[in-house]
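Sample intake sheet
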Amino acid sequence: MSERLRRPGARSRLASTLVVALALLISLMGSAFAQSTPTNATQFPPFSTPATLPDAPARDGGALKVVASTSIIGDLVRQIGGNRVEVSTILPANADPHDFEPSPKDVATLEGAHVVFVHGLGLDTWTQDLIDNAGGGFSVVTVTDGIETATRSGNGDGHDHDVDPHVWFDPTKAAQMSANIAAGLSAADPDGTDAYNARLAAYQQNLATLDQEIAQRIALIPADRRNIVTNHDALGYFADRYGLNIVGTVIPGVSPGVEPSAQEVADLLQVVKDHNVSIIFAENTVAPKLAQQLASEAGISVVDTL
């Protein structure tokens, strides 16, 4: 989601694109639920403005050169690193990390880097070839190390379950990712440790506030209206954290590169009817064509601006 905010000016005007993006997600959910229940519309109060993070003094000898595999990680690194870091990302904005194929020019992005941050959990396996071909000279930090993960339904490839990599949809796990980033930056730039830790503490407080406010808003939605269908299985951690019930996905599994069978579509249509689902949530990195077809058959709506 944070990939939608592409201009540098937009980043500087926001305390964090990830914080704002998660707030946008729950706001869109609130709007969608309200539209589906016009006689009992759920009105969400506005979210708090994230607190400004402490300044990070410029680094002697120039900014620490950092490469992030995705722009979500890039955003987190900018929040923790501030003026001490210069961040480049590999995955283009609005691209799907599951099936991204890097080009030779992406190897050049790693040249001169001090630290490379990768996601792990199978989301950005394409980074390994880039790292191998770049010849080293930098440390590699996996930002999801130590995070408790969940498994979801398989992709029809012979595996019953797959690790769900979409941990950033839970603010508490984003806080853990941020701590891993702060540790990685401090290891590469010990003089900046105090600045990184100060910004980490403030950013984690923003995430804690966001977590609380999302929970408060979900509580406004009647329990029997919390059944949702998603385009692919990306919102599992969000649902786990806040008590939503994902009763089905249009695309089976945690990777969007799998086509559902005709029987799977028919079964999902029945699930939608049985659970009184009125909205399908789709993200802008995955074509919502199938979701729109299913919604049309079921007489429900699609939110495809996530």
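Comment: DSSP finds ten helices and ten strands in the chain. Confidence is low (pLDDT under 50) at residues 1-15, 155-160.
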